[in-house]
Amino acid sequence: MEEEIWNIGYLVASILFILGLKKLGHPRTAPTGNLYGAMGMLLAVIVTIAQMDFGATDTLILIGAGLGIGALIGYVMAARVQMTGMPEMVALFNGFGGAASALVAASEVFNLIQNEQIPTDWLTLRVAWIAIGLSALVGWVTLTGSLLAMMKLKGGVEIFGKWYRTPTWGPEWLNYVKGLFLIGIVVLIYMSIDEASNPGEQYALTEEEIQISIIALSCILGVLFVLPIGGADMPVVVSLLNSLSGIAAAFTGFIIGNNVLIIAGSMVGAAGLILTNIMCKAMNRQLIDVLFKSFGGSDKEQVTRTKIGSDPEEVAMVCDGISKCVIIPGYGMAVSQCQHQVREFADILEANGCEVKYGIHPVAGRMPGHMNVLLAEASVPYEKLIEMDDINSEMGECDVAIVVGANDTVNPAARSGEGPLAGMPIIDADKARVVVMVKRSLSVGYAGVDNDLFYEDKTMMLFGDGKQMMTELVSSLKEL
Amino acid sequence: MDIISIGGLIVYITVFVLAIFLGFELITKVPPTLHTPLMSGANAISGITVVGALILLKDSTSIPFMSPELLAFSALILATINVVGGFAVTNRMLNMIAGKRGGK
Q: How much is the ipTM here?
């Protein structure tokens, strides 16, 4: 039988990927979608190994070892990660994917160079060398960009027991530097083709040196790309890098002439871009602004006003006997890991006959759906998590709004039409009769804009770590 | 490396472009809860490059130091981490969300 017959398996795998991705977008079918994706991947791997006529024993051992080591590491990492570490984990896996595509490209090109099998056919050489160059560019950018994004999500990195904060730095001219790097890489790809098609002539750089330069420049470009972007925008960046890693896989498909790579890769690339756009829309920002205009982090407004903090007993008394309470969580809840305390607090209120709902801002936290995942971990029923638009229509009837570690997402300054927050949709916490803010200080949020809500008379500030404050609030409520 | 004909190249480019359009159409309205799982699941699918690594290793019997085989072998490991880790972590997230909802 023709071995090409196995390619039907790739078709089935591609269909499974398409259905999987489609189903992942709907709540009820999402787990099935994930299963379809995994089945498609398993099928693609089996078909690939089967096409080797099950190969020589040594080859099978080698491949088995690679798959085994990778599967073990991947599974252990996935099983061990805390739900709050999710975004970092996705960023890291994404970087690995990009690096894998780039390594395949590198392996192929060095193999051809070392064995002097550089294609002599005009078209083949150009297709192969352009695909290899682009795969290297996108793949290595994805790797270093994702690693930096991961460190930014963590807020810093520990080297030999010392904690270094991840820097955010990017003057206007850095964009031109990035442009130069990109042009440099394109020129290098052109040089590599030129040199490969004139084997007799002497060039300043050998073919191998050119390929290594492409890799080096791409790695630096990835770092420069993410460096100026602040931590709050990392979800958008991770999503975009996810899209890029798909594109890298598609280019790799061109190199080895494999349709399933091209289909799955470009599909993920396109779908990732749409998802990135959805996220940007939720933050009311343009993708271009996120990527090329430094935002937040720099020139933060100085806070000059003061506000006297309240204590948990005071807040507990206010919460006694109310009929409707909305909890608005933010990144602070993720940092202090206080979702269980928040839930306990809600349980007590509910036991006293109060209606408790959670208002979820689409970009609360560091990842879309970040809050949903955290609250799900604390066993908060799904139907109590209300999306921004729906909760806003109810805020007027709300007795107490509890804002746990959020700032920009409830800042009324967003309605004014001026400043960095202008036009961002917010949760109307200020429409509640009483607003309680659990926050470490009066400092500005990520956008660097002071929040008028803090200083309103109906606002009570609970200064302190989210977990500690929520714990004290719970015990005060119990004592009433 | 196989010779690529114009016809073959056009088939690849056709597949590439159509798959991009398909990807654009696949994702339309996604509830925020599913943004992270969707990103993670799509990321796992982009680990398809594991197939590329396997194809490059199809005639290898050993991995000499600093060789193209070593690069392909590293690619195989990294891609497998991406695939297995990605699907496992997506599954964990979805179970958490779906499990809670099933209880209502």
A: 0.93
